């Protein structure tokens, strides 16, 4: 899911011959991949229900990415910290600032 989002964002913002596009693709090739497992999917589903009960909306893909990150005790790197900081226990960093 993260590879999808990174590729989508790079494709929207840069041409394939742009050094920034190449940097994103390079990052993707170096990333360690974690799958959506049954356990992380259940966590994501519970989180979505909890947010909905509180009148908060998060995109399904973002909730699943966060759940995968939590299950693997990782840190989520994003330029949208405010969006993800609503998820309890999730470590979030912004490498752009």
Question: How would you concisely characterize the structure shown here?
Answer:
The chain is mainly alpha-helical and 97 residues long. Helices cover 58% and strands 6% of the residues. It has five helices and two strands.
Any key phrases for this structure?
single chain, 97 residues, Rossmann fold, 2 strands
Q: Using only CA atoms, what is the Rg?
A: 14 Å
Number of strands: 2
CATH topology title of the largest domain? Rossmann fold
Q: Helical amount among residues, as a percent range?
A: 55-70%
- Summed up, the helix count is 5
Low-pLDDT stretches are none
The secondary-structure class comes to mainly alpha
pLDDT average, as an integer?
91
**CATH class of the largest domain, anyone?**
Alpha Beta
- Order the strands across the largest sheet as they lie in space: 1-2
The N- to C-terminal Cα distance equals 23 Å
The CATH superfamily of the largest domain appears as 5'-nuclease
Strand content: 5-15%
Secondary-structure element series = HHHHEHE
In CATH, the architecture of the largest domain is 3-Layer(aba) Sandwich
- Major β-sheet profile: 2 strands, parallel
As for the number of domains, it is 2
